Amino acid sequence: MDTRQKKIAIIGAGVAGMVAALELSKGGAKVVVFEKSSKAGGRAQTTHKEGYYLNFGPHALYAGGLAHRYLQNNGIDYRGAAPPLNRENLAIFAGEVYELPVNLSSLFRATYLNWSEKIELARFFRRLPHLDLDKIMSTSLAQWLKVNVKRTRVRQTIETFVRLSTYANSPQELSAGAAFAQVILANQGVLYLDHGWQTIVESIQRKLNSESTSFRYGAQVQSVKQLADAVEILVDEETFLFDAVLLCIPPQEVEKLLPDALSGQALSTCRAACLDVCLKRLPRPKHTFALGVDEPLYYSVHSTTAKLADGEGVLIHLAYYLEPRDNRDDHEERLLRLLGQLQPGYERELVYKRYLPHMVASYGLPRADLAGGSGLESPSLDGYPSIFVCGDYVGRGWQLVDCAVNSSLEAVQTVLASRDEGVYGRWQENAASATVESQGERALGGGNCALLESRNWRLNCRVLFFFRQFIGGYFDLLKLCFRQIVIFDQSLNKT
């Protein structure tokens, strides 16, 4: 029985690193977090500028996701609200503004679609909860849409909602099964956070025991070396020994430290050109949300839902979802034209704007050629028994921040596995359940609280059930109406 307190190093203080630090400290380990920046947060950092709270592009916490429930179950303090879905949600098609079909009534009012297209889109949403996602994990979104959706504008509309849910603009690579799973998750709702995502990071920090967890900021990790019974790391020319090391950093930084660790792994990054705009007020207050249908455009006034300004100011997020090989940095002009179209005269209200031409939304794209995986199957690395990798590109069954949190929980599960049962009992009831149960779900406290079980991708469609029933009834009514029209037309022809 190993009763010695384990010494664990975490490299990177983003959400994945902070969750790992909290769980390791609760598990009885001594933790040191090395962060190259001057504060924790990573891509979850929030900048306070001119009285406004700016994330790195638009951020949303999925209400049905693992990260949200982890924060709730562990008493992590934050405030947020869900944006409304109403007739003020707009679609941009061929440069013109239309109502976005977010529900049945708006579908009927979406004038960029003709009636046959509306029927086909309704049929897709009715079919969505019944799709066997396991069978289409190895099918790309583009391939699935080509076979199953006849009309171009319907395919474009479906791709629009997929981009919104996954932050990915790669239908040729993206797994159809993973894409639709994320759309279903998004239908449970999203949250915009008051004062930005930094509040999550700071709340986790407050829960950390200062006696068992310490931070070193501005730390440049130069090397990580697996030894026989320890891990040696070199930080700012100083050498440390740890029982295990968690690399909670982007894949390119992992490759610098361990050049052969990710060899042969197919990783794809989801990026977006992001424009954050701070205004004193909205020239057109009702224009709060819009999506491009035939262009990968995003527009959202997050401040109408969340508190993101010290006063009465307004924060607008705009984004152009980038294709995998799009390295241009000239999308700002298109985003400004969109802003001018939706908020004419915004220049008179402008306080501050920031353009991020290649903002990383996720380092892990669920790929069809990897059967919905993002590259790394688990945090464990071949040849490195005491070194683990955590992030949104590790594991399967979750995407974005949910994936990052799940990978951290799974890594901590493995690191603490040699602890005695008394310390580790809250994690693992027995060895048998560990081989079947999702590591992340066990860390959440067990119970039937998963939207997706990471191994078998079962779906919980309670939210969509009502939508399906609602639209299904109207769809049947619509079919009846069309049938009557056909009968009437035939009778006219006979006369």
Structure in a nutshell:
The chain has 15 helices and 21 strands.
Task: Describe this protein's structure.
The chain is α+β, with helices and mostly antiparallel strands. It folds into 3 domains: 7-42 and 198-265 and 374-443, FAD/NAD(P)-binding domain, CATH 3.50.50; 46-83 and 190-196 and 270-362, Polyamine Oxidase, Chain A, domain 2, CATH 3.90.660.10; 113-188 and 461-487, no CATH class. The chain is built from 15 helices and 21 strands. It has helices at 15-26, 66-73, 104-109, 115-127, 141-148, 152-166, 176-186, 198-207, 251-257, 332-342, 400-415, 421-424, 431-434, 439-443, 462-494; strands at residues 7-11, 30-35, 47-49, 52-54, 61-62, 80-81, 89-93, 96-99, 190-193, 213-217, 221-226, 231-235, 238-242, 244-247, 270-279, 289-292, 297-300, 314-321, 350-362, 380-381, 384-389. A 7-stranded mixed sheet has the order 8-7-16-17-18-15-19, sandwiched between helices. Strands 10-2-1-14-21-20 form a 6-stranded mixed sheet, with helices on one face. Strands 5-9-6 form a 3-stranded antiparallel sheet, covered by helices on one side. Strand 12 and strand 13 form a beta hairpin. The termini are far apart.
For this entry, give a set of tags.
495 residues, alpha+beta, FAD/NAD(P)-binding domain, seven-stranded mixed β-sheet, six-stranded mixed β-sheet, 21 strands, globular
What is the CATH top level name of the largest domain?
Alpha Beta
Overall outline = globular
CATH superfamily of the largest domain: FAD/NAD(P)-binding domain
Major sheet strand order: 8-7-16-17-18-15-19
What value does the Rg take, in angstroms? 24 Å
- Could you please say which CATH topology of the largest domain applies here? FAD/NAD(P)-binding domain
Number of DSSP helical runs: 15
Task: Outline the low-pLDDT stretches.
Answer: 419-478, 480-489, 491-495
Percentage of residues in strands: 15-25%
What is the makeup of the main sheet? 7 strands, mixed
Mean of the pLDDT scores? 85
Helical percent range?
25-40%
Total DSSP E strands: 21
* Architecture (CATH level 2) name of the largest domain: 3-Layer(bba) Sandwich
Distance between the termini: 93 Å
Overall structural domain count:
3
Which structural class should the secondary elements be placed in? alpha+beta
